[in-house]
Write a structure and sequence with these properties.
FAD/NAD(P)-binding domain, binds flavin-adenine dinucleotide, binds 1,4-dihydronicotinamide adenine dinucleotide
């Protein structure tokens, strides 16, 4: 009887929690769909221009009290992209719109309105304090290029794909940075498979078309190779049985191992897992040239001599890291203190671009001695927002203090003067508290990467040490960590639905 009562109470608790959860999510959705009226932007306040809508800029905008500034955002991308799940979009495990959050929805929820221009910033004129912007979209109005003046500027334009000037990469390789890249890859995979099964195709051509080559053994290359092999194992093999003995994934890396930022144990685990999944890893192999049908790669032969070999491919995904965007390299040239900057804008511990006043940089375009990751960019953006909020508060208190000083001077009696003096003391105390902002310090929470066949690797920071783990449990942790990090409830629900959908029905093998 006791056990039965316990069971009944457990059911009730579960039932109530489910209802509470549904109400919570429902309210979140309702709130998202019904934004409040916003304060109009105040042009009398300082104009803060933010370039980019990526990890750095959006985490700044999320925490910024927009009523303190006249905020203007410029970016050619009118959405935020949750990049950690982008490799899953290349094979249709997740649909790309599930990891995009429209910037308009997000900005519409800020207390004071923010101006957004869908445009590319083409040049920053530091002397004139102007950003030149260009509408690069298909539809253009009478005005498609103009300028935006700023008092304060945050540069968060991220980075481009590095090609190291290797001939043929831009013409024939596909990158993996934006939504469009993932869509191109998804289509190319299917195109290669369908073309390989075209009537009378020669065996050599079939082998070439079904050879999927990934260059770069960093996390982007590894995660993509893992996703691609999953796609083959769970779907392609079933729907196109004729390619099952020919489809092959090769990962090419110039260094002696893949995932150099992970611990040795996890590198070995990844390499072992790839071997089991039949992904070929070619380490110590440097790609020197790319043509439309093969890559030329240099490696060291068993006799110690350099060997140059031609590797035919159908799909080539190029994932060899980051390079400067033109707007950043142009800005570097304008600032003498940046003359030695090669990898990005050198910033100080307050993220101020060295040699500049009122110009800050966050994320992949800034060099602050941290890896170019979303984790770093989002922490930098959030810290900068806190600093801007405090700067505004400081200014507010200082104005109040100046007013009180005048009031104190004009006070007719000693009692009145003493009362104002007490207020001044309180405000000065508050000012000291507000002004206490330390420099930016990055807290590394760990590195995570998906390696295919429902396995992931994780190097998690724990107290003063590190926990390294790999396998299926780590994969569940990877999934829950990324779900919790998704931008909005809407993104979280869409991603979960996609995971369930691809598990039940398999991934979609149609080409659009
Ligand atoms: P981005 O997020 O790239 O944003 C740059 C913004 O600037 C974009 O909105 C862009 O449109 C805009 N922009 C570009 N040019 C201009 C211009 N001229 N004017 C105005 N705006 C401009 N990091 C992790 O920590 N964990 C992960 O799991 C992870 N996975 C990744 C997976 C992939 C496939 C990739 C490519 C990266 C991954 N990263 C991950 C790295 C992470 O995405 C980047 O470090 C992060 O996006 C950097 O943020 P950012 O704000 O500097 O740049
Ligand atoms: P990366 O810079 O981490 O790795 C690029 C790799 O390409 C290097 O190992 C390099 O040796 C190799 N390479 C360069 N030129 C080559 C050539 N010609 N031939 C063969 N190999 C060559 O780049 P990636 O993976 O694009 O990552 C960029 C940033 O984004 C990194 O900071 C990374 O940490 C972050 N990121 C993090 C992820 C995660 O945490 N799960 C996922 C994806 C990216």
């Amino acid at each position: 009887k006791k056990r039965f009562r316990l069971l009944r109470w457990t059911w009730r608790a579960a039932y109530i929690s489910a209802i509470a959860g549904a109400v919570y999510i429902g309210y979140g959705i309702w709130e998202m769909r019904h934004p409040d009226d916003q304060l109009a932007p105040d042009p009398n306040k300082k104009t803060l221009v933010v370039l980019g809508t990526g990890w750095g800029s959006v985490s700044l905008l999320k925490k910024l009290d927009t009523e303190n500034y006249n905020v203007v955002v410029v970016s050619p991308r009118n959405y935020f992209l949750f990049t950690p799940l982008l490799p899953s979009c290349t094979v249709g495990t997740i649909e790309h719109r599930s990891i995009m959050e429209p910037i308009r929805n997000f900005l519409r929820h800020k207390k004071a309105a923010v101006k957004y221009y869908e445009a590319e910033a083409t040049k920053i004129d530091y002397e004139k304090r102007i950003v030149y912007i260009n509408d690069d979209s298909e539809i253009k109005g009478d005005v498609s290029a103009t300028e935006v003046p700023f008092d304060m500027l945050v540069i968060g334009v991220g980075a481009e794909n590095a090609t190291f000037g290797i001939p043929g990469v831009r013409e024939h390789g596909l990158f993996l940075k934006e939504v469009g890249d993932a869509q191109r890859i998804r289509n190319r995979i299917m195109d290669c498979c369908e073309t390989a099964t075209f009537k009378d195709q020669s065996p050599e051509e079939i082998q070439r078309l079904l050879h999927m080559v990934v260059v770069g053994g960093g996390p982007t290359g590894v995660e993509f190779a893992g996703e691609l092999q999953d796609f083959f194992n769970s779907d392609l093999k079933k729907w196109l049985p004729e390619i099952k003995d020919t489809f092959k994934v090769t990962l090419v890396e110039a260094l002696p191992n893949v995932l150099p930022m992970f611990s040795k144990q996890l590198i070995d685990y990844t390499e072992k897992t790839f071997k089991e999944e039949t992904i070929t890893i070619r380490t110590k192999t440097m790609v020197k040239k790319v043509t439309d049908k093969f890559i030329e790669a240099e490696s060291v032969g068993p006799d110690g001599k350099k060997v140059l070999e031609k590797i035919p491919y159908g799909l080539l995904v190029w994932a060899t890291g980051n390079a400067l965007r033109p707007i950043v390299s142009d800005f570097i040239k304008q600032i003498p203190a940046q003359k030695d900057s090669r990898r990005g804008l050198a910033v100080n511990e307050y993220l101020v671009v060295k040699g500049c006043e009122n110009v800050w940089a966050v994320g992949d375009c800034a060099v602050a001695n941290y890896a170019p990751t979303a984790q770093v960019a989002s922490q930098e953006g959030a810290w900068l927002a806190r600093m801007f909020n405090q700067m505004a508060k400081t200014q507010e208190i200082e104005t109040e203090l100046a007013e009180l000083s005048v009031k104190q001077e004009k006070a007719p009696t000693k009692e009145a003067r003493d009362a104002v003096f007490a207020d001044i003391k309180d405000l000065q105390k508050r000012l000291r508290r507000v002004k206490q902002i330390g420099p930016f310090e990055y807290t590394h929470q760990g590195s995570l990467a998906y390696i295919g066949s429902e396995k992931a690797v994780a190097d998690i920071a724990w107290w003063s040490g590190n926990i390294a783990s790999g396998g299926t449990l780590t994969y569940l942790f990877w999934r829950s960590a990324y779900i919790s990090m998704c931008f909005s409830t809407r993104n979280r629900i869409l991603v979960c639905v996609d995971w369930v959908k691809s598990k039940i029905f398999g991934r979609d093998v149609s080409r659009v």
